[in-house]
Amino acid sequence: MFAAYAARIDRDQPLNGLELGERPEPEVRPGWTVVNVKAASLNHHDLWSLRGVGLGREALPMILGCDAAGTDENGNEVVLHSVIGQSGHGVGPDEPRSILTERYQGTFAERVAVPAWNVLPKPEGISFEEAACLPTAWLTAYRMLFTNAGVRPGQSVLVQGAGGGVATAAIVLGAAAGLRVFTTSRDEAKRKRSLELGAEGAFEAGARLPHRVDAVIETVGAATWSHSVKSLKPGGTLVISGATSGPNPPAAELNRIFFLELKVVGSTMGTKEELADLLAFCAAKGVRPVIDTVLPLDRAREGFEKMAGGDLFGKVVLTV
Q1: DSSP string covering 30-85, please?
Q2: Distance between CA atoms of residues 265 and 150, nearest Å
Q3: Which of 53, 127, 194, 258 could share a disulfide with 162, CB 3.0–4.6 Å?
Q4: What is this structure's pTM?
Q5: Quick check: 78 and 71 in contact, CB under 8 A?
Q6: How many CB atoms lie within 10 A of CB 274?
Q7: pLDDT tens-digit readout, 304-319
Q8: β-strand 291-296 against 315-319: which pairing, if any?
Q9: Strand runs (DSSP E) across 132-247, as ranges?
């Protein structure tokens, strides 16, 4: 079957390790099932995998891709939850929790094998391309907002780095849930687009906000960390799920964190139950993922280049 896969690890030039070509059919273990992929979306995790983060050379070649929507063996339209082993379904007792492409072949292929427990029904009215955006970036944003930040309608949230997959999802989901959403970007076009998606205010990176916020959604890391901490109300919550600009901020702002009793919460992906709630929320409220580009799988390299360059707003989706 045709697939996009990591053939080599290159920390400095990750796309040098990306190959497109034929790979073996997926291995079906007891309790697993095969899904025919219709659409799969790119995440920064795929670029990090090509750099060797979470993916060792001993696991190569590895088909990339965490997210997918498609049809199961009975023709039902489904969405995949890409956290494998979270509940023990389909894995042995000594297998650690992981996501697709860390230990198991991913979704940038014609077919993918996952535990049957990881397959959810795709709601009617949500396309395969839209559904493929939900299991990683949009689920991450959903958990950051509603589980780990615990914000309520009427409260305020700052989303750093408008344009990225998680940030875009947080803007749309937050606005749809009645939050007062502020966002930042160095790019004027991305700030304007954020306002169109429901943000109350969009500002230059590092700019002073109209008022301090109840929570910050942080995926940028070092470049925005100090601004994130300074933007919080006393007792506010900073939720972080990534550090695309690096993990070591010049100033940790520890004095401000303890004096104002701020909470810093790490967040990774989300549960199958949260994904089911996200799917139901999107179906009921007409919320749809923001898609920047749709490409056929054989043009996957273009999608990777676009994501690596940061020249996008929303998700890049590959179709099979």
Answers
A1: TTEEEEEEEEEE--HHHHHHHTTSS--GGG-SEE--S--EEE-TTS-EEEE--EES
A2: 11
A3: 194
A4: 0.93
A5: yes
A6: 17
A7: 999 999 888 889 999 9
A8: parallel
A9: 156-159, 180-184, 201-203, 213-218, 232-240
